[in-house]
Structure formats: C-alpha cells, structure tokens
Amino acid sequence: MKRRLLSWILILLLAVPLLTSCGQTQTQGENTIKPDTTSVAPNQPDTPKADEKVVLTMGSWRADDKAQMDKLLAQYTAEVAPNVEIVFQPTNPPDYNATLRLQLENGTGPDLMYARSYATGLELFEAGYFGDCTNIPGILDNFSDSNLAPWRTPDGKMFAVPFAAVSHAVYYNKDIFDAAGVSIPKTWEEFIQVCETLKSKGYTPLANGLADEWDILECFFLGMLPNYVGGADQRVLYENGTKALNDQNFVDAYTDIASIKPYLPSGFEAVTYNDSQALFSSQGAAMFVDGSWTISVYDDVDFNWGVFAIPARAGKETLITFHPDMAITYNNASKYKKEAMDFLAWLCTEEGVKKASASLPTGFFPMIKFQITLEDVHANEFLALNNGRKTDARFVWPALMDLYTPMDQAVISVIKGDISPQQAADNVNNSRQ
Amino acid sequence: MHSSYNRLEPRGFYWFLYTIPALLVYIFFMAYPLLDSIRLSMYSGTYSNMTFVGLENFRKIFFDSEVSTRYVNALLNTVVFFLYHMLVQNVLGIIFAVLLTQRGKERRNSIYQTIIFIPTTLAILVTGYLWKLILNPVWSKNLLDAIGLSALAQPWLGKESTALTAVSLVSCWQWVGIPMMMFVAALRNISEDIFEAANIEGANRWQVFWRIQLPLIKPVVGIVAILTFVNNFNAFDVVFAMETANGAPGYSTDILGTLFYRVGIAGQHPIGIPNPGLGAAIATITFLMLIAGVIPVLLKTRTKE
Q: pTM (2 decimals)?
C-alpha cells in the first residue's frame, strides 16, 4: 500500500517537469514575435539620465582586431557620445556564429554585433534578433547598391550597416623572388612556372595547407574562381541554373587548383591556417594565397613582401574576389537601442567612416561611397589590385551557400589527387538541390 | 540489513523525506534535461520556431541519405575510437597497474604512477594542440631528421588513413592514467595470503596474473569497460582540438560527438544554423545505445554476494 503511494509520488514528480516543458514550447513560440513589437518603444525604466554612462557591448569574430577596435570605440566616446562607452568583446572566429546564436537565443546577446553577409545574417534578422537598420540616417544614400545587397532582405529592408570588405590575393616574399630571379606572374601558366622555379631552387613555393579545410576554399579556390567563371553577371547565370556547375570553366578551375599540389609544403594535408601564416612569416614559404585580413600579421617580419592578384589563364581576364564581409547591427532586445543606433548612424557618415578606417584593422576596406585613403602601404597595395579590374563576392556566398561543404570537399579531394577535376565538378553539381 | 529495515518500519516511509533533496537535484539536473532532450528530438526548426514532427528526425538519421551517410560514418568511427581505447588504453592500464603493484618497489612505483597520471590532469585542448604540433611534419621534420627517423615525418593527422588512429592514440595516452589507478586500487585490495599460497604452490608470475589477479579485479574491469564505453561514445573534445569540428580530413575522424555538435549546436560552417531537433535525435540514439551497452555488462561483471 505504502509502496504504491511512493511510486505515485515518484510519477508525479517526474510528470511535473514534463508538463511544464510542454507548456514551454508554446511560450517560446510567442517570444519570437515579442522583440518586434517592443522595438518601437525601448524599455523606459532603463533609459539613462544625461549624466549617467551607458555601457554597450559589441560582439565580433575579429579577435585579432581588439586593439584597433578599442581605439576606435574610445574615439567615439571621446568625440561623439561622451555618455556612451562601447566594449569590444570578440569571440574565437570559427565559434562566432554558434556563440552569437546561443547568446541571442538565451537573451544574453551583445548590444551591437558584427553581422555576416547574405543568408547567415539574414537568418538571424528573420528570427527577430537583429534590429531593423533601414531607417538609420545615411545608410541608403551613402553606400552603393552592390555594397548594400549582402545585408538587404528580399523585401528591401536593411539588417546591418556595411562596415568593411576583404580582398583575396597572393602574398609573396620579395626577397625570395629577387634571390630566385622570378617576377610577378601575369598569367596562371606563369604562376605555375614561378612555383616550379622556386621549387627547383629549394624553396617551398606555397604556404597553403588543407588541415583547417576552410582556408583552401575561401582564400584560394574562391579567390581564383572569378577568373574562370567571370564576374557577378556570370555568377548569376550559375545561380539561376542557366549554366551548370560542372561546365568547362569549373573543370578548368579544379584542374588548376589540383596542379598546385607539388608546390605545397611537405605534409600539406596536416598544415593548418596558423601553420601557413607561420611558414610565410618565417620565410619557410615564398608565397601564401590568403585574404587581406592577415596583412597586419606580417607587420613585423624582417623581409619585404607584397601582393599580386591571383592570375587568370593566358587570354582570360583577371578578376578580384572583393568580398563584402562585415557589417554591424544592433540587438533587437537591447536595453540601449537608441545609443546603439546612434553609433550605427555615425558609421554611415563620411566623418565616421574616415575615423573608422583610420583605426579599422588593416586589410579591411571601407565600403562607403566617399573616397577614403588608407595609411598602411600594404593595404593600399591590396586595394590597388581592384583598379581596372572587375570584382565580385565569393562565389557561393550570395545564393549557393549549400554548395560550400561539397565544394570544400571537392577542392580538398582534387588537390590530394583522390578524384579527377571532372569528378570534382560533377560532385558539386550533383549536390545541388 | 533486514532487521534494521524492520526497526524503521513502524515509523512509516519518513525515510523517504531524507532522499528528497538528492531526488530533486537528480530530477531537475539529470532526469529533466534528459527527458527534455528526448522531447526535443521530435521537433524541427531552430529554438525560436519549433514544430512537432514526431519521429521524422529519427527517420532522417537512418534513411535520408544526406544525414545517414554522415551518421553511419560517425558511428563506425566512434566504434573504432572505442576499440582503440579498449585495446590500447585499458590493456596498457592493466599492464602498468600490475607492474606498479609489485612489492618492495614502492618508491619507484609511486614516481611512475604520478608520471603516467599527469596527462589526465591536463586539459585536452592543451595536450591536443601540443600533439597536433608534434605530429605535424612542418614543425617536427627537422628534429626527426636529426635523430634519423625521417620516415616518421608524415602528416599523420592530415591523411584519411591514419588520422583516426592518431587521434585515438593521443586520447589513450591522455586517459590511460584513470584505468591504471582503478586497477592499482583493485590489485592492492587483493589479500596477501592468496599470493603467499600461490607462491607456496609454485605458481609463476603469469599464472598469478591469469588465475588470481585478473579474476579478482573482474568487477573493476567491467566498470572500466563501461566508463570507457560511455566516455568514448560521448567524446568530442579530442577531435575538436586536433581535427576541427568537421572531423577532418574528409570526415575520417568525425565521431558522434562532433557530428552532434555540428548538427545540433554549432551548425555547419559558414552558415552556422543548427538543427537542435536533429541533434537531440542523435543524442537520444546515443543514449539508448549506452543503456543497451551498459546494462548487460553491469549484470555480467557483478560479483555474486
């Protein structure tokens, strides 16, 4: 009898959390609509008095830029908004999307944060976490249409303020090039020739590796891809299915990326992105195909270096992958929406962008319409690669993000020699839904 | 035992009150999250917008080729990962324990015991990173060339054929201290009389091990096997530290833990949109496998009273 009573108590205890958890799902669904409705009126009790200092946090995946961003944000406090202090709180780059999502879902997200372009950012806006930036003064006037596109919803709303773009090119060690008697290649054939010459003289031509998987695709393959498929007008034809992802252009691109294998470091399968950087900066490799965001890593090296565009095959046009990378947005659930939006409005003014790009990390290029000159020599050299050349975003970002992983695996397998260039192109084409 | 139960009987089931604090902690921090994740496995969508889909997630794991390819691959890798631990970590654990419980060498024993146990106290993110550098020919080639072992300068972590073995062995190196300590404790518990008797009977070292030591530590062998099984099927950090969350190269080190992390928590780079329902379904299947694996072993190795 007593035993039965006991088991009833146990069942009851177990059932209570079960029941409450069922109820939770319903309230969770309602919660998502809430932030939008409250967006009109920010929390009244938390609006600060004039003499009180408001502290905002800013989330970012740019852990390397802490010093520069701290300087910029301090400048903002000193010159523009004395009662607002913005604290830069970056996350380890590969974890940013996951961490930010977790923070936002639990209501502990930063007040301001970096927003990824295209689908990744759009998804967080549609979930109600990112604030609506369409009405921030200056945003629609001071940026070109193509620079707004990555952070615009299909129905024309802006979910972030464009902040910076990154570029892709070949870093090369001028001292090694002089010593080996080679010069900047103008075509892909010359590029391979340069690699061959460097190798025959005992240098490791390229620092790139495969271990981290993302860099070989994002820096190298997507960096060179516009040379094979053409600019944005051609990319659209692949996106809408007019052109197949296993056409001759793609087979050529996979053929060429496969041909770099002999020029990679020994054990390139296990070489990580950090290893590549260390190899290039310790003169262990003569070239490194990478993004502009690493310019400042080589500030202190004791050799001369420069950058050149990843060259197209002879007879084809060389293009630059100039990728809209960073935008900043505000948290829809922030207590200090007004202060956050004021900061974003500042980033839409010529004055603000000038200040920002002066302390913007090297290798990140402003996207505003006004003419901005950069202080860093290498950054200017990088930006100058755009002169007279067409540019485009990374191929898969605007509309074919589902192909990221298949293309990444195809590139890695084709370099290792596990599959042929034709198979690589077919694999990617087949994985298109 | 029986008599004390009777003595409490007249006072009813008040003893139950004393278990309530522990029971509450257990329910809210163990049972509830577990049941809730089983519930979650029947939903799809992200946290902000969940819809009930019944067993759809489970169907996907086994029959949707895109998901099932990855799942089956991760499951097989996990089994291999587990077998490496059983064969290398636990066998070494027993060998070390037998060597370190030899009589008359207490000083030597305690020094080695500490050395072998030290890696266990270090964070896997640190040791994993160190091993990643050691196993990388870019950094280790010069040293290996200098000592005439150039053949060992291979990208062990970069080749599909060797990556899982390398990662498993690093994990074994890290954790061998735990089974060793448990076996040492069990071996020290064996009565001295038995060894004396065996000695008088003329048993050699080998016979002592097979006929006396191993049978008497059988329950501990069972416990260690269960712990290894549970830890390995929940493993994640060693692969994350050494081979990224993708289980590089080419998913050859992708285990259930990393697959679950990618699917349920982080989402696939670079979009990073997780599918918590599908992730919870993966976790639920792992949980069922653990139950199915643990109970028979527990029953089998339980010593008779």
A: 0.80
